[in-house]
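Researcher: Here's a chain I'd like modeled. Treat it as a single chain, no partners, no ligands.
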Amino acid sequence: MTDQAQAEPVRYMERTRRYYRALGYDNDYVWARFDEVPFARLGKPLREATIALITTAGPPGGTNRNSRGRKEVWSGAVASPPESYDTDLAWDKEATHVDDRETFLPIDAARRCAADGLIAGLTPRFHGAATDYSQRKTLEHDAPELLRRLREDGADGALITAL
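Model: Modeled as a single isolated chain. Structure tokens:
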């Protein structure tokens, strides 16, 4: 790979459109759009906030599937995260890899932020919501379930990272 090729950004939206067309779909993927953003400004200084980590990676072996095979929200202990994750997901395998957990679940970096006083600390659990390409499922099931778990863990805010 040339230095020029490495410097080029990955054009995900364009690649997704081409991918859907190559699969035979007549219409482009419809990207989520929210006229009202369901997020709120942090109510305290970041250095006083307990932060939860959320990833789109799935757990080892894809154990987050329900009886109908649909992906479900899952959680794990920050103190003992798995060494591997379910990589049977749609991600750009040419532009990235899953060999470095910190790229999609930055537990060690967040711990350093806490040690440096940038955040108060992490919640005891991290959470996963593997992408399912359903805006309705995300809005009606996954997001409310994540919010319930974040509140249960005492999170003041969340850092969401994608695989």
